[in-house]
Q: What sequence folds into this?
């Protein structure tokens, strides 16, 4: 099939078939506003580690950039509009699946050691803790998805940890989160959202308050450590950790911090020799950390900062309205006196208007600051903390998010939308710089 560009006002092309040779993939970009569906006609194929069902059409969400890969050959049918679609035989998939096989063997070893019992070191019963690093658009999130889905297909329940606050593949951007992956990741619905453990940072870049970012990583790691200690199976299945594409200066320092905090024992470096060498040298004194260089796929689509900003907005919108725009959020009103809003590390970014009257920006980067509700909060996202007391906010995970749609200073009322009806599960809210404007 030749490369085609069919979006941009042109009539939708008729359904078309594509025959893929073994170990090749069809790369497809879906436009933001036109539907595409795909059907497997013959053979087997997968999208980032999740197999296409043998029968029936699979809707591909708008704005997706995907590769439909086949190990043994496949015939596909596409129906709808694409921005581009082209096949490629040059993929790093064999290298990726070999990496998966090595991780799988480590999981099996950890499980067998735990079953044997006796006096064992923690590292003997710990499965692989894989951290995937690389510059922006090197395919990190995609490789994480594949490693998780292939592991889940074999019955493991690895924990996915997402440290990429810029994009947010588990929940909205601005969060550090983790969730067990119990089955291959759904092509349409993405990462399952039943049991995520979410810590709210509240900004799309760590430079705003790197100390808070580090504290939240530590809190998440501590909670996961506790969960692993009581669950040999998930400890053997290990973790797959996705990171940000910022690999220089502070970004690099945070990567080293993440490796240490989550006790990663496998570092997969995508697409940058220099980063691989730097990390290898940095961890050489530490036992049992493998730093492995992996080829980047040429299929990974480059996204500029404007596109990323837009994607962030869509992720927030999806939280309230669903991926297929099929959910209806609930609008609600609370009195100012019924909630308390805090900012973690009130220093750097907080506008003076968001600080208590007469307060100066504080120096302690992790200090908690109570903020007055003001019209500045309109269009921003607030997180609902599980904390019982304000001083527990930084060490507590969050229950979910609300989006502020109006602030009535005179009547002292805040209007918001939430995914569920009813009262807020907590009165302690965390402010953020994340905004979303309803079109
Ligand atoms: N082989 C491929 N063919 C087509 N699209 C691909 C392929 N691999 C990845 N993509 C797409 O390219 C985009 C970028 O990939 P991905 O999100 O994995 O990169 P990343 O390194 O995690 O990016 P970031 O730096 O933002 O964290 C995604 O939309 C992904 O679906």
A:
């Amino acid at each position: 099939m030749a490369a085609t560009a069919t979006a941009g006002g042109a009539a939708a092309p008729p359904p078309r078939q594509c025959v893929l040779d073994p170990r090749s993939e069809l790369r497809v970009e879906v436009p933001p506003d036109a539907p595409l569906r795909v059907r497997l006609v013959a053979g087997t194929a997968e999208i980032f580690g999740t197999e296409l069902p043998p029968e029936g059409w699979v809707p591909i969400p708008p704005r997706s950039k995907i590769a439909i890969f086949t190990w043994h050959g496949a015939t596909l049918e596409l129906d709808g509009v694409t921005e581009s679609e082209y096949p490629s035989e040059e993929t790093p998939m064999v290298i990726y699946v070999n990496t998966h096989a090595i991780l799988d063997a480590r999981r099996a070893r950890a499980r067998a050691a735990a079953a044997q019992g006796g006096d064992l070191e923690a590292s003997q019963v710990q499965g692989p803790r894989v951290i995937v690093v690389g510059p922006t658009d090197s395919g990190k999130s995609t490789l994480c998805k594949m490693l998780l889905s292939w592991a889940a297909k074999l019955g493991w329940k690895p924990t996915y940890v997402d440290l990429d606050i810029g994009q947010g593949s588990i929940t909205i951007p601005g969060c550090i989160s983790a969730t067990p992956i119990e089955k291959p990741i759904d092509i349409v619905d993405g990462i399952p959202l039943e049991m995520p453990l979410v810590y709210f940072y509240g900004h799309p870049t760590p430079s705003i308050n790197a100390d808070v970012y580090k504290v939240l990583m530590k809190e998440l790691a501590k909670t996961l450590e506790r969960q692993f200690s009581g669950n040999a199976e998930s400890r053997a299945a290990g973790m797959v950790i996705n990171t940000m594409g910022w690999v220089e200066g502070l970004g690099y320092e945070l990567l080293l911090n993440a490796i240490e905090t989550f006790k990663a024992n496998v570092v997969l470096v995508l697409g940058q020799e220099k980063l691989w060498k730097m990390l290898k040298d940095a961890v050489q004194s530490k036992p049992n950390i493998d730093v492995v260089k992996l080829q980047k796929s040429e299929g990974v689509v480059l996204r500029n900062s404007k596109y990323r900003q837009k994607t962030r907005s869509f992720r927030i919108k999806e939280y309230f309205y669903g991926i297929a725009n099929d959910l209806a959020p609930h609008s609600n009103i609370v009195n100012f006196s019924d909630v308390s809003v805090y900012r973690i590390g009130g220093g750097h970014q907080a506008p003076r208007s968001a600080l208590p009257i007469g307060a100066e920006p504080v120096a302690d980067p992790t200090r908690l600051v109570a903020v007055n509700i003001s019209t500045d909060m309109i269009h921003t996202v607030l997180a609902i903390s599980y904390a019982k007391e304000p001083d527990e906010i930084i060490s507590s995970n969050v229950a979910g998010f609300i989006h502020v749609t109006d602030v009535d200073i005179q009547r002292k009322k805040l209007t918001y939308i939430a995914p569920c009806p009813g009262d807020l599960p907590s009165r302690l809210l965390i402010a953020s710089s994340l905004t979303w404007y309803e079109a």
In short: The pocket of adenosine-5'-triphosphate is lined by residues 27, 65-67, 134, 136-142, 164, 167, 245, 297, 299-301 (CB under 6 Å). The chain has eight helices and 23 strands. Residues 278 and 297 are 22 Å apart (CA to CA). The longest strand covers residues 398-408.
